[in-house]
# Entry
Amino acid sequence: MYDRVGGMPFFEQLTRRFYDAIAGDAVLAPLYPSDPEQFEQARVNLRGFLVQYWGGPPTYSDERGHPRLRMRHAPFVIGDAERDAWLAHMTEAVRSRGLAPLDETQMLTYFQASAAHMVNAPG
Ligand code: HEM
# Structure
């Protein structure tokens, strides 16, 4: 997948669009760092994770260790509203990239499942 979608530039653009949307989202923005450098670092962390997950270089784990994503999200209250907002922005970001239909479906299916998995305060 990493090579098919165009490698690093794809994930750079995907996470930029996604994080721009988060910055303007009333539900999600309060969960993320307000300091611009930390906000940018959060984006770079997501970019690195997705690059690695989809078959690119494993820089994320080299720098941050095993992802353990549910555990890393434990400090944040993630209910249905947060999941829906996160998924809506990610879906919009993925669709904006003009992927081949099967690649787009595979990516969106993954984000649906992983976003549901991150909910730690159902309701
Ligand atoms: C369901 C709604 C979700 C919410 C509200 C959410 C929120 C957050 C927040 C607040 C952070 C911390 C940012 C920071 O302070 O550095 C974070 C980090 C992260 N999130 Fe999510 N997230 C969600 C779902 C997901 C999903 C589905 C994935 C993966 C597909 C994901 C991947 C990551 C990664 C890789 C990090 C950085 C972890 C690290 O290395 O520290 N998140 N998320």
